[in-house]
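pasting input
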Amino acid sequence: MLEARLEQASILKKVVDAIKDLVQDCNFDCNDSGIALQAMDNSHVALVSMMLKAEGFSPYRCDRNIALGVNLTSLTKVLRAAQGDDILTIKAEDAPDVMNLLFESSGEDRISEYDLKLMDIDQEHLGIPETEYAATITMPSNEFRRICTDLAAMSESVGIEASKDGVKFSCNGDIGNGSVTLRSHTSIDKPENNVDIELTEPVSLTFSLKYLVNFCKAAALSNQVKICLSSEVPLLVEYNLSGSSYLRFYLAPKIGDDE
Amino acid sequence: MARTRSTKPSTAAPAADADSSRSKSAITLVPHSGEPPKVFILPSKATPEARIVTLPNPRTSQPSRYLACPDTGIYEFKRIAAPKSEPRSWLIEASTDSDQAKTGDNASAGSQVTMGSELFVATALDPLFLVLPALADAKASKGSEKPKRLFLSSDDHLDKLPQESSHLSEILRWDTTRRLIESRMSAVCDTVDAGDESMFRLNEDKLLEVIYQKAKRMSKSGLPPSMEDKFVNKVLEAPLMHRVSTASSTETDASSVSQTSTAATSIAGEQADETVTSALQASPETVELQKLKTAFEFICASYIPSGLADTLRQSFTGTGGPVDFSPLNDYLASLEKLRSETMAVRAQDYSRKRNMDEEEDEARMEKKRKMEEEKKKKASESRGVRELKKVNTSGMKKLSHFFQKK
């Protein structure tokens, strides 16, 4: 059976909030190392990969590998009943029909318990190799979100151009064009505002802004976001959670698109 | 927790035994027998010598139960029961002044509840019907138009009835019963005296007359309401139309009025014939004729073997019959014509519309179903997922192109 206690319900709330607009149904794969999730959107051009390591829970117990197939909209409804600072416990039997969620509010001695019906989801798993990216940009997640939403107002797609000068986000739409350029920036007072660009070779790729805006919903999870680019390879947008847990998004680049 | 499981049942079993034996001693439960007791109403004039006997049913030749009384004749049982959907049972209270209750030898069995909801009422039956199959001899009459029938003694006739599980020979030992049966036989047969024995041969005209008289009496004394409703009123009812000609609407009015009037003042069928032919509508006479026909049909269908019943029906309603059915037939013919006309008008009215309706309905239902399905599907996907479906993904390769499937 599975029993996972999360001190902050907000982590799961935010993760599910970030994924639910990309994926409809997905499996939470639970094993002794933690809870993992991998799912693609309907068009199979974007992929979300989540890993909540066992260390992030206290305690964490999983005797056997369990796949919890959930509808994320339904899970959102249940999680809405939890306060951000509630203690969240996920429980499930070995061959579960339901996933049990327990919210404990330490301040108010309030305990709420929900059973969410599970579903059988047949999903293909992709093996994602460790890739050496040509460019790795680390920047404030809010900054990335702002760039994406601003440019999305003008165009469907954004060109990301990483060079030793900096990283340039540019778009070309019906009403005109625009671009945002960021340079490396290090602040000692506010390290969360750092912009760091690691470059082995310059890259220039085009991506769908709608998807990027969607990924940015995870900005609440982490102050910093890591964007990894290599030509002819999907973009990786990574949000680090506490410890070595992460939420990663992959997006296929637009190739041969003249616009 | 240390206790082993194997010891448990051995201690539990005798306890259970003791329980059951105790309950046995406390309450005596009569074991449920397969057939619940039946409730009969027997005629008070039947003598104590009356017996329930098995005789072949005149219609089906299957062994059936009858009540035979040496003095008052033979009775058939009519089963009255509530429909299966309304389960009922009888609460039977023993009358306190009965001998049994006084002596108290069977006091507990006096009052009881029976599971069966049926009530069997013994009603008088003309013994003629019982012997009719023998007289008619269905096998012989089937072949030719006018079967050759021989004069036979009553015993020879009765031997033709199926003997299997029949108590006929027993009840014939009662002199009164034998005399009763023979007298009834003579009512429908030509008889010849041969020595001290009478020989009988069925005369169909006599039989027809007897049945006709029975039917007449039945229709005069009033058919049961349900029967009258279904076989008389329904049959004679003219169809209701939007564009009914005035003639037909007055016809229906007349029929309903006339029916009530005939119930009060029974007019002889014979007398009224002239008036009927002059005015073609559901007059009291037509209703009377239909009642008579219904009564006759009922007797034929209930008590007379089917082969014989067919010939009787033909001669009864035919031209040479005892009653002239032409007014009724004329009325029914005009009614039929009217009905087919109405149907045609209605079909014209509705056929096109209904077809359209059905198709539309189907289409609408299909649409509705699809809408609901879609709604359900939509409810399970978030707004974001829906939005992403609209995104132009041209030029974007699927991720399975980049990453290998596991």
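fyi Chain A is about 15% helix and 45% strand.
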